[in-house]
Amino acid sequence: MMHSIHKAIAGTIFIVEVNILKTELYNRIVKIGLEVDDMESSLSFYNQKCGMPILDRFPQPDGGECVFLDAGTVILELMTPKEGDGQLHHIALGVEDVVSASDYFREINVPVTMEPIIVEQNINLADVRDPDDIRVRLFHREG
Questions:
Q1: Residue 67 maps to which CATH number?
Q2: What is the pTM of this model?
């Protein structure tokens, strides 16, 4: 299905044709996770300077912290401690059922790199990897 997206930037209208694949697997990208060195500095930037409201803040089981910020149509998740070099941690796809989505990826020979779990705030998660080894998180939040 082709859709036209009209975007006005500095008085110029851009028309972009987007091929949208209708799927039952996920309904949208819901969250982008960033690993950060210093949570307070990152919050100062994204919350105070960029104006993204804090939606939720909670501890991680490993002693780190997680903050969800309202970035418009997606949630920006700031995470400590860093597992890697402080860059993109994951892209999260909103799914209705994390277990079923995990099973689907197994059926099409995409390895599930983190089995489904339930974490703080009634969040259900699982991970797969894209062809460039970027973590794609299957995400469902109850309520």
A1: 3.10.180.10
A2: 0.60
